[in-house]
Amino acid sequence: MAKKVSMGLSKSLLLKGFQCPKALWLTKRPPEFVLPERPDLEAKFRAGTEVGILAQQLYPGGVEVPYEGLTVPAQLAKTKELIEQGADVIYEASFSFSAIFVKVDLLVRDGDQWQIHEVKMGTSVKDVNLDDVAIQHYVLNGCGLSISKSFLVHIDNSYVRQGEIDVHQLFHSEEVTTQVKVRLQHIPDGVRELRETLRQLNEPDVDIGPHCTDPFECDFIPYCWQHIPANSVFDLRGRGVNKFDLYRRGVVTFDEIPLDQLNAKQRQQVEATLHQQDTVHAEGVQAFLDSLWYPLYHLDFETFSAPIPKFDGTRPYQQVPFQYSIHAQQVAGGDAQHFEYLAPPNVDPRRELAEQLLAVIPEDACILTYNQSFEKGVLRELAKQFPDLADALQQRIANIRDLMEPFRKRDLYRWQMQGSYSIKEVLPAMVPELNYKELTIADGSAAMQAYHTMCAMELGEELDQLRRDLLRYCEMDTWAMVKVLEALHANIITQ
Ligand code: SF4
């Protein structure tokens, strides 16, 4: 007998269903398919909770209805009790109507009505946020509360921290009452349709589409996209092609794509893949190599960012450097000497990092980065923060060259690069023996997460191990650049 599925819904389930009814159905009836873990979601959830708690200070003196430690009926009862007792501000107030459960970040009494304040860690109001508030409005109305106004409270990324966080500057409250009322009209029908979908015993017939990533990346992508082979229209890089349009017309694999619909770079990607062809424009590569000089310092930063700025003088989501790796070569193809810096946890790393970097890299050295705009941006922020170091930092910025350049221009293209010039694709194509597979930390976002974890850790072996992992990862980034540069030289010699 088919398992009975609960018709109970929450705000996040409804939003998931509005994005794709099949996603809601699959959440309630999980397929026999192992979905990969999403560690990024856990980190986002933690950051969101921190932001939500801080935003409570916008309306101090409220009472919280906690999620942890209370059953749903207890949360509903506690909210009812607080309202009856005359509470003016309730954090995480809980309501249920028509088997839809919602929690309101900040519920503020407004005469005999109420205001809804929904806190988001983004920096602007998005359509999905309006739906989010409309669902709350619908449920609260159903519970007999009259809503006077609705607000979306989001991060103002022009705020610069000085001392204690000023919540009135960090957050921007935008009144969205009118937009929410428009969306509110569609909620009852939307809920009814989703419940009809949920009652179906068979998986809804919804094909893949732009809705798989908009507004959120759907958890079920690995399941629903299983039929898409490698080297499909979805692997085409660059703009100008409507990939879903081709897919719907039955054009899926590279050999089915009409080449006249592609731009020159996409055509090169497809043809190079189909015929396993590489391209080298020796003159372009040589011009790039001629633009470098020695000593040459390969440089890579790791940075973290957070919605709540951690240190004075930083903004929300500012990329704050906490680590660098440098490999220095005195002559082309010569031995590479390694230098590194990794900040201790919870200490503003910028001054020390900048001073050490300036001490390591001579004024007249060539500095090689991969994707120079990132490293230049970090150095510019440091120059702005420390005027006494600004000239020296600007000098280093002027000496930066970009190893990505010959790949971005396709002066050297290997078919395995799949149309990309990101180091993730370039490295295995240029230096197949080198990879990040053995490393515990294997990409920039994992490194950023590791920094946040490090700041929450006690001193001890676990912290030491994490620091070793971070150092190994960042060292690999600049060592990879040494090897890619070596491979570029070798390609010219063999031409
Ligand atoms: S992957 Fe796409 S089609 Fe599948 S459930 Fe998610 S949104 Fe729907």
Could you please describe the fold and organization of this structure?
InterPro entries: DUF2779. The protein is of the alpha/beta class. The chain folds into 3 domains: 9-194, Lambda Exonuclease, Chain A, CATH 3.90.320; 228-263, no CATH class; 283-494, 2-Layer Sandwich (Nucleotidyltransferase, domain 5). It has helices at 11-19, 21-28, 39-55, 72-84, 127-142, 167-170, 177-184, 187-199, 221-224, 243-248, 264-275, 282-290, 350-360, 372-385, 387-398, 405-408, 423-430, 444-455, 461-494; strands spanning 9-10, 63-64, 89-97, 100-110, 113-119, 147-155, 171-175, 279-280, 296-304, 320-329, 336-342, 366-369, 400-402, 412-413. The strands form 3 sheets. Strands 1, 2, 3, 4, 5, 6 and 7 form a 7-stranded mixed beta sheet that branches. A 5-stranded mixed beta sheet has the order 11-10-9-12-13, sandwiched between helices. It is globular and about 80 Å long. The model has no long low-confidence stretch (mean pLDDT 95). Residues 20, 22-23, 26, 206, 208, 211-212, 218, 220-221, 224 line the site of iron/sulfur cluster. Iron/sulfur cluster is lined by residues 20, 22-23, 26, 206, 208, 211-212, 218, 220-221, 224.
CATH architecture of the largest domain: 2-Layer Sandwich
Query: Uncertain regions: pLDDT < 50 for 5+ in a row?
Result: none
CATH homologous superfamily placement of the largest domain: Ribonuclease H-like superfamily/Ribonuclease H
Bound ligands: iron/sulfur cluster
Binned strand content: 15-25%
Query: What's the N-to-C terminus distance?
Result: 69 Å
Largest sheet: 7 strands, mixed
Percent helix: 40-55%
Which geometry do the CA atoms define?
Answer: globular
Please tally the β strands and state the result. 14
Number of helices: 19
Number of domains: 3
Structural class of the secondary elements? alpha/beta
Question: What radius of gyration results from the CA coordinates?
Answer: 27 Å
Annotated CATH topology of the largest domain: Nucleotidyltransferase, domain 5
* CATH level 1 name of the largest domain: Alpha Beta
In round numbers, the mean pLDDT is 95
Pfam family, one: DUF2779
Domain DUF2779: 297-422
InterPro entries: DUF2779
Organism: Desulfuromonas acetoxidans (strain DSM 684 / 11070)
